[in-house]
Write a structure and sequence with these properties.
alpha+beta, 10-stranded antiparallel sheet, 8-stranded parallel sheet, 11 helices, about 30% strand, globular
């Protein structure tokens, strides 16, 4: 039985508890009612009227039409319209059949507000399409949100795949480019494509002299290929305004593309399957510039690269590998030992078979390097190629021992020792992707397998040079070694370790490595069920080679340098760096102070371009290979490189309407101006001592 005093005390405690609860709830409600800006959320509202959804910020307003899923973004002084949903928006596979569907034809479409607290917009849920009288279910979830102070427009897409898989998705749709002045593409190392460009244009496929896409080239647009996109972005300029798209999930991405003669250019995101299915969430980001051009776009991507770890500066690379600092302002010289083309190679000269074989011994190359030193070249990076047993591009990945006719192991060691005595750095040109059928270790189970046995094969560059297919395995025979497959990237590091252990056993220690092609061609997907490999897995396997080389050798180099390799490599060459339209240095505006780019001395144009871009020259070993005029350009490039190698390229501009005069600016104020009509250059402040 409770006494009166106890009852009174209980009532008091209950009252205190109730008061405390009310205060707590009131504080919670008050906190929830604080203005969004006070707790960091963007000031963005979402509304719906008559099937049109509006996402409104302070700078940008986005309108989505629920009926056709078209999207319009109005940002300050420009509007950007994405075309409506169309018949080939998505490719699906179910019951063994593949077919296209239109997103807006989904029988279940649900649009609701979507707010993460840091980005705000809508979520679009789609499902249930009809095809040939049957229902097709592949639930698709799309989000469209404004994010951050700059109100960038972020798109996410993911699918729930069960009996039906999503094989390709073109969303967001392409920009309506009828009033776009220029499209900026990062293929090569930067392309400015006017809307009215008079020739048919395709980033990766060969263009004939008549200005048509070559019918024999069926190369597929995809990320991480220097000719498709050396960086994961593209952009548009309209008057003084600009907009760019950054692909934040590039490993299985491409872009929709079309540019007929006279334009306009059609380009938008395309999400490709990963081992046959969509698999994971994909993200793209649109960034708007009220006043801006391709320089502003490149600088926005540079910030993105820094924030995500893609950008590793040369200063950081020198700190982790001090020898990289020795590359600043020195020429690079390539020396070949043995070329020995197989008759089955597409490059084999049937008219003059003597051109298919050349041999220069290791000792002869050592003599030539001593002569190079006597000509006043105090420092150089020497890249030795053609050292495999049967010659350049032969029998990879089992390329050893070195050719006996060139001097064998002893001759190779004498060449390496000579380089050290002369103060030259020496690295070997090596290759682990091309998998030759006459390699001692070749087994078909380790070759890349495509998804099915249908033709044509899709592996690049066989798609350009001529490919074949036996079962699931694609082949080509373009290079010196003849018929080859492609080695799965999971097994490449093991072969590199095997080969370099042989070098070490012979007392041969190069000071770095040049691993061919991996910075140029896409990482290979492999459908072999024994070791399925995604593009991401392949990049991880190739990055393991680059990391091992840095730790155990020193300098790391590769071909061209699509930007996924930037964290791992110190120097790349400019292979594949041209443009079929108007060349602009987008790559250098982003990565000039992150990687050294070498430029060929084969002609005056490439040397002038190297000077304009603050690059490093490639110097032929033969004394008569370069005339005095080009030698002067090489000396100028070398001296300029010593000044600007570790500086950001801050600006590029065309100085005339015909793109025949252009200027670059570096972070210390140095400017380089090239006049292509006069074939002249001017560096300010002037270089001393030339």
């Amino acid at each position: 039985m409770i006494s009166g005093a106890d009852s009174k005390m209980s009532r008091q405690r209950l009252a205190i508890f109730a008061f405390t609860a009310i205060v707590t709830i009131s504080a919670f409600v008050s906190a929830q009612q604080l203005p969004r800006e006070q707790w960091g959320a963007p000031a963005i509202t979402v509304s719906n009227a008559g099937g049109k959804w509006t996402i409104a910020g302070k700078k940008t307003t986005v309108t989505i039409n629920e009926s056709d899923l078209s999207i319009r973004a109005d940002s300050d002084s420009a509007h950007w319209l994405m075309v409506p949903s169309a018949a080939r928006d998505m490719l699906v596979k179910t019951g063994g059949a593949e077919f296209y569907l239109r997103l807006a034809d989904a029988q279940k479409i649900n649009v609701v507000p979507y707010d993460t607290g840091f980005k705000t917009g809508v979520r679009i849920s789609l499902d249930s399409w009809r095809h040939n009288g049957r229902n097709v279910s592949v639930p698709l979830f799309l989000t469209v949100c404004l994010e951050g102070k700059d109100e960038e427009l972020v798109f996410d897409a993911v699918a729930r795949e069960q009996t039906t898989v999503l094989r390709q998705l073109d969303w967001p749709t392409a920009i309506d480019a009828r009033d776009v002045d220029y499209t900026l593409l990062s293929n090569g190392r930067g392309t400015l494509l006017p809307r009215t460009w008079p020739k048919e244009y395709f980033p990766i496929r060969t263009i004939t002299p008549e200005g048509k896409i070559a019918a024999t080239d069926h190369s597929v647009l995809q990320s991480n290929v220097i000719e498709s996109w050396s960086m994961s972005w593209w952009g548009f300029q309209k008057g003084r305004s600009a907009m760019m798209v950054i692909v934040e999930t590039p490993d299985d991405a491409a872009y929709q593309f079309n540019h007929p003669a006279g334009g306009p250019t059609v380009v938008g995101p395309r999400w490709r399957a990963q081992l046959g299915r969509f698999g994971y969430l994909r993200t793209a980001r649109m960034c708007f510039f009220a006043r801006g051009n391709y320089v502003d776009m490149a600088k926005r991507y540079r910030r993105y690269a820094m924030e995500t770890g893609l950008f590793v500066s040369l200063r950081e690379k020198i700190a982790r590998t001090p020898r990289v600092g020795e590359l600043i302002g020195i020429p690079q010289t390539r020396v070949s030992i043995l070329r020995n083309l197989k008759p089955e190679s597409d490059r084999y000269d049937t008219k003059d078979p003597s051109k298919n074989y050349s041999l220069t011994t290791f000792d002869e190359r050592a003599r030539q390097l001593r002569e190079l030193k006597s000509r006043g070249i105090e420092r150089a990076l020497i890249l030795v190629s053609g050292w495999p047993h049967l010659g350049y591009d032969r029998q990879h990945p089992d390329s050893l021992p070195p050719p006996e006719r060139a001097g064998g192991w002893d001759g190779m060691k004498r060449l390496v020792d000579t380089c050290r005595q002369l103060g030259y750095l020496v690295i070997f040109h090596d290759q682990y992707r091309d998998y030759y059928l006459d390699a001692p270790s070749y087994k078909s189970q380790f070759a890349v397998h495509e998804e099915d046995t249908t033709l044509p094969a899709h592996q690049f560059p066989g798609s350009r040079f001529g490919d074949s297919k036996e079962g699931y395995i694609p082949f080509m025979r373009h290079w010196d070694g003849g018929k080859q497959a492609y080695l799965n990237a999971r097994f490449q590091l093991g072969h590199l370790l095997k080969n370099y252990q042989l070098f070490f056993d012979q007392g041969i220690r190069p000071q770095g490595i040049y691993i061919d092609v991996i910075g140029y061609v896409p990482p290979d997907e492999d459908f072999n069920p024994e070791h399925p490999t995604t593009h991401t897995d392949a990049m991880r396997g190739q990055a393991a080679m680059l990391n091992w080389a840095r730790q155990n050798l020193g300098i790391v180099s590769t071909e061209s340098g699509a930007d996924w390799v930037i964290p791992y490599v110190d120097t790349v060459n400019s292979s594949g760096g041209g443009s079929k339209a108007i060349l602009v240095p987008l790559y250098h505006l982003v990565y000039h102070d992150a990687v050294l780019v070498s430029h060929s001395s084969r002609d005056q144009k490439t040397l002038l371009q190297g000077i304009l871009y603050g690059g490093v020259p490639e110097l032929p070993i033969a004394s008569n290979a370069v005339d005095e005029k080009n030698m002067a350009l090489i000396r100028a490039m070398t001296a300029l490189h010593r000044r600007v190698a570790m500086l950001e390229m801050t600006r590029h501009e065309f100085l005339d309407a015909n793109y025949r005069k252009e200027r670059t600016t570096f972070a210390d104020g140095t400017t380089v101006t090239v006049d292509w009509d006069a074939n002249t250059f001017k560096i300010e402040p002037e270089l001393k001592g030339l």
